[in-house]
Amino acid sequence: DFDYHPNILASSLASKKVTTFASLTPWAPDKDAFWSKPQEGIDKAISQIYQYGVRLHKFYFKMEDPETFTKEAGKILELSPDGILIAPWAKRESLKFTQELDQRAIPYVFIDSNLKEANPISFIVQDSVQSGYLAAKLIDYGIAPQSNILLIHITKDLQNADLLLKREKGFLDYFETVKNKSHRIIKIEVPYNEIEISNKLSNCILENKSIDAVFVTNSKVHLVAGFFDQFNDRPKIIGYDLILKNIYLLLHSKIDFLLNQKPESQGYVATNLLFDQIVRKEKVKNANYTSIDIITKENFEYYSSI
Amino acid sequence: DFDYHPNILASSLASKKVTTFASLTPWAPDKDAFWSKPQEGIDKAISQIYQYGVRLHKFYFKMEDPETFTKEAGKILELSPDGILIAPWAKRESLKFTQELDQRAIPYVFIDSNLKEANPISFIVQDSVQSGYLAAKLIDYGIAPQSNILLIHITKDLQNADLLLKREKGFLDYFETVKNKSHRIIKIEVPYNEIEISNKLSNCILENKSIDAVFVTNSKVHLVAGFFDQFNDRPKIIGYDLILKNIYLLLHSKIDFLLNQKPESQGYVATNLLFDQIVRKEKVKNANYTSIDIITKENFEYYSSI
Lengths: 306, 306
Fold this sequence. Notes:
The first copy, chain A, has 306 residues and is of the alpha/beta class.
């Protein structure tokens, strides 16, 4: 776009007013981690609106430790910024924080997932139910009737992981609609621990004779694909997100499909939504959805994640 | 992007120089026709660079009549524009035109397909071989070993349709790599005529007992899906392009996958490539590829074609 905002620029230059944003997102341990991608989009947006006096303060929490979310949220309340970007991963802790923000009338935008109990001015997410539904369709398309399908959540606290529960819902909804094919769906939950995952999967194979397809509800799909690589015949495998380990296994034909949600674009759009509402004083759209991209070994090379 | 070009703007305003572009693309009979989409992208780009003195003259040819290409190309030569956008659909006629442009040193950009015998300053296309390869993978993923697969070209002059031949090549290449599964591939060619298509398909079913999957190499996939809709059991069906008739059948579960190439974005990018090279005097990248998007009933709603 050649879109720019001379009037806003003029008035913010004249007033020298500084607008303070804060972001609260999961800590990305390295550049390949999923959460470095939304951060890239946020940084790009901030670099473009910096000239309007916008300054961003970044806060990070550890996904496996919701207490870190609460601690960083406290720091943000002290800072009292003009607007906040939040990835509301831990549901309970996020709702506590947003209730406090609602009371103080500090606007916030959600990225990655939405909580319908909260009141963000806007959210940008993938439709998680629909993406689970799509995963089910891709599995159903590729397997014979009466197959065994494994749905696996790799997470420590499923009940606090709204997004994964929504993906599961979509997945099960799909098979409700085609129940005449009578696949068998086996559901397991296991924390992010290679040995435990391996044990659970081994037991699962012993109990069910064969597993024809696997749906991993998050980016940990590389662990499952790695496990099945020891056998001659692997099930169809579908998971999420273009992190390096997943891409490697996709390109080596160990994973069939990765669903992706353009996380860079999410961070970019979310930041601009906050800017539009707070600095430009425009009412922004509440619900914003990213695409649900189907990535295979064959179209990966030409895929642009922005 | 917040990108703009104040220096170029200043100098083009001062000089009042007009830069003339021409486009030569297939005639789109209505807004739903595939070729109205690249046109949208071209129009959007032109509206943004109009302020730099760029004026576009549009010329259209009829895809089923290559003589119209030659006739319109002649009008462009008379106009002698500063740069040209060409969809080089009819290979022979396109090469004759571009040889003339090379002699006159008039730069041109190809959209939709590339001809390796020509010398465009740039082209923006989908990698057609790779998209055929992807179609084959999606079919192979969904069918049992020893299946009958139909590859169908719906066109009047296949030997002049470089893009369709490339898609076929990619498709056959894929099955070379998995030949141990020994599917049988049946190839047919038929002009764009509903009765002839129906006759050919009927004969094909009679001769081969069953057709398990069909790959239609262009946007005419709706005709094939319509034909198979009369039977209880339809083959897996894959084709190209989000035109309205195809979308309708996709959403009614009569087509499994549509491969899409963001034609709006192609037109937009192509125009900007011409602008960057001719007005901004920047050397642009010669090869530009669009994504190969996999669209299903389930992710269509959230797909953005720009």
